[in-house]
Input
Amino acid sequence: MRLSRYFLPVLKETPAEAQIASHRLMLRAGMIKQATAGIYSWLPLGFKVLRKLENIVHEEQVRAGHIPMLMPTLQSADLWRESGRYDDYGAEMLRVTDRHGRDMLYGPTNEELITDIFRAHVGSYKDLPLTLYHIQWKFRDEVRPRFGVMRGREFFMKDGYNFDLTKEDALHAYNRHMVSYLRTYERMGLQAIPMRADSGPIGGDDTHEFLVLADTGESEVFYDSAITDLTLGDRVVDYNSREECEAIVREWTTPYARTDETHDEAKFNAIPEVRRKSSRGIEVGQIFYFGTKYSEPMRATVQGPDGKSVPVHMGSHGIGVSRLVGAIIEASHDDKGIIWPEGVTPYHAGIVNLKQGDPEADAACEAIYASLMALGLEPLYDDRDERAGGKFATMDLIGLPWWITVGPRGLKNGVVELTSRRTGESEELPPEQAVEKLA
Ligand code: ATP
Ligand code: MG
Ligand code: MG
Ligand code: MG
Output
C-alpha cells in the first residue's frame, strides 16, 4: 500500500475524551472513529488489525476441530422467553420492535439461537460431539461504555458452543477451548492468564476468564507469578486427545490465579510471598461449562445409546475480538505510539522515502516495495511529499515492527537504514540485505 493513496487520518492532537493509551492511540493513528457512544467505525488501519485477529481466531478454532458458521445479529424475543432470559437480561439488552409489533433484540450472546438450531437438526448421540462457533457483532447497552473499543456497546465477539452427550465429553470440549485460546492469545503476542471466575448471567459452575495484565484493566486479579512463566510455544497438540488437553489445562490451572469474585485469601497466602501478585487485568475471553442449563428448558435432547432421550451437556466460549485490539495496544506501546507484535501488525514493514521525487530514492523505494511483496509481505510505503520528521512520527505512531528509511545520502554509499520499532535501533545495510532481514 502506498500512503499517498491510502486513508490514514492521523490526528496531531491528543483527543481529550480518551482516558487510556489504547483509546488515544487508536484515535490518533486513524484506526477508529466514534459513530455514537460505544459504537465505532473501523477505519482502514483498524479494520486491517481487526481482520488479522479474526483470522487468528478462526485458524485456531478450526485447528481445535470447531466448526465455523454465522448467525444473525437480530434475534426474536421468543427464544429468550423460552430460556427465561428475556426478563433476566435487563437493561443491557437492546430491544427493538418490528413493523408488525414483534419483539426483537440485538443479540448480546447466542446460547438460545444456537440451541434452537441444534434441536431442529440433531437428534442422536451419534452426531456428537459438536462444537459450532461464529464471529459476529454483539450489542450490550453497557451503562458506561468507555475506553474506546474496550468497552463498546457494539462489539465483535467470537462465541462458540459445544454439544456433548456426557459431562466428561463436555469437559473435554472445555479443555479444548482453554488450550486453543491460550494458543490464540500467544499468536497475538499476548499473555492472557486463565483465571477461575464467576459465571454471571451465562450461568454454570466451571468457568475461566482470560486476563491480560494491565494497569488500566477493569478487573482486580490475584495470581502466583509462576503462571507467567508458562508458554505453549510450538508444542503440537492433539485436540482429540483428552489426556493431552487435560495435561495442558492442569499445567495452567495449578498455579493460583483468580479474579476478585472468586479470590480466596487463605489459599493466596499459602503461596510464597515473592510470588504473590495482585494487579489489574483486562478480560479478553471466557469459557463456561453449564451442563443442561439451556438444553433442559429448550428441550435440546438427543437419543443416547440406550434409546433414551437426554438433554445435551453444553458450554459456551467467547473471545472479545474487538476488545483485543485495545488490549494488545495497552500491553504494547510507548509514549510515541503503538508497537504491534509481529503476528497482528497491519503491515509488515514501512518504507520511508526521505526525498520523494528524487529519481534514485524513488527507484530504490520501488525496488524494496516490489521485493517485499515478492516475499509475500505487505509493506506500507510512505511516498508522501512530507518532511522526514513527520514521516518518522507517523511510523512511530502506527507502530509497524520494522521500517526501512531510504535517502539520497545513504544510497550514495549503497545503504538504507533498517529500524526496529520495539528497540528503536537502526542499522545501515545494502537494500537487499535489509529486505532479507524481514523475510
Ligand atoms: P465484562 O466483564 O468486561 O463486561 P463479560 O464478562 O460481560 O465482559 P462475556 O459475556 O464473558 O463478557 O463475553 C465474552 C468476551 O467478550 C469478554 O471476555 C470480553 O472480551 C468481550 N466483551 C464483553 N463485553 C464487551 C464490551 N462491552 N465491549 C467489548 N468487548 C466485550
Ligand atoms: Mg459484561
Ligand atoms: Mg466479565
Ligand atoms: Mg465474561
About this structure: The pocket of magnesium ion (ligand 4) is lined by residues 209, 283, 286 (CB under 6 Å). The longest helix spans residues 167-187.
